[in-house]
Amino acid sequence: MAEKGRTQAVSMTGSAPCKTVLVGVTGCIAAYKTCEIVRLLQKAGVRVKVVMTEHATEFVGPTTFRALTHETVAVGLFDDPSDPIHHVSLAQEADAFLIAPCTANVIAKIANGLADDLLTTTALATTSPLIVAPAMNVNMYENGATRYNIGKLHIRGVRIVEAGDGYLACGDVGRGRLAEPADIVSAVLEELGVRRDLSGRHVMITAGPTIEPIDPVRYITNHSSGKTGYAVARAAALRGADVTLVSGPVSLPAPEGVRVVRVRTAREMLAAASESFAATDIGVFAAAVADMRPKETASRKLKKGTADADLGTIELVENPDILATLAAGKRDGQVVVGFAAETDDVVANAQKKLATKHADLIVGNEVGEGRAFGTDDNEVWFVSAEETYDLPLMSKDRLADEILDRAVQFLG
Ligand code: C5P
Fold first, then answer.
1. Of 123, 225, 250, 325, which one has the greatest count of Cβ atoms within 10 A?
2. What percent of the chain is modeled with pLDDT above 90?
3. Burial (Cβ within 10 Å: 0-12, 13-18, ≥19) of residue 5
4. Which CATH architecture has domain 202-411?
């Protein structure tokens, strides 16, 4: 690698993206509210899997949760013949396990370590934070047995999102109503250690390569995998931002809770990014935009040896610079992050780009020889008007949080 600048300790406390929350549903009329909880978790950038008790399926069908989560929904201990220890794999996959609504019966079981179905067995097998949101009739909720069991869970470190007061499905009025879905989701995100410092903020990210057609079959492009931009989008969503991801063609799945606008060419990317930029608090321009495109795009495949094709010569014209164009018109308070992928003189080039592209921060990195493109980690410099420093080698997920941490400082 090129010689490094000043080394500065970097915070490694950012929220790790791509969290999976296992949501347990038990047999209670409030089970329909779990659909809203699942949606809110997804909006927060979380991947959700659902496990249900048999009784829960009497209230909401597994198909509903399968459609919402695009994941298989687990019910029986032995339903999955390919995975005879399903409770262990589910437990291991989960960064947190939420049971909402949780009946008095299931509270009693997990308080005493009973494990007679998939949900309770998974609860016993998990080492991740367990969050329980009870819902039941007021008398069941106030019953000494239930209070005692909830107390036991609390002492064991289980997070209890207590039920609220109100009208209950049975006609009684009192405590026992499932807590508000938003409050339950806040508790889960807290247990996951996710900071919500971008709540109410708009973040736009460009990501991936662009492709510039020569004819209907051929095009000019580059090696960008889109991983960094997608990681920033995922992290921003988890931190509470409203996220728009303008993406060139990549083979990555859309991050949860992110609005994805798919484009192909640089000019399409500029049009899509322009639409979102005005409302953006933070713009992260991670796309590897093709610098040039063929002047003409042939409507038919160019054939060698024919009059319509001189395959040795393709006339190129320059593409618009999306970052420089949009950042030139940025308003006060908008933060712009650009990238400099260089084979040589990373820092000097990044410093030059800071000014020419009107960016607040340039993330510089070396490319070539297996570095950066398509890999899962990266070693970069942060270059701003105030300072230049390098960060240690880290995953692109972690880097995404570092970029957002720095952008938040610029927001003030
Ligand atoms: O000039 P260079 O391509 O090295 O600049 C890299 C930075 O500028 C990246 O942030 C990239 O997303 C952005 N860029 C752009 N439009 C272009 C070329 C680069 O937004 N046409």
1. 123
2. 75
3. middle
4. 3-Layer(aba) Sandwich (3.40)
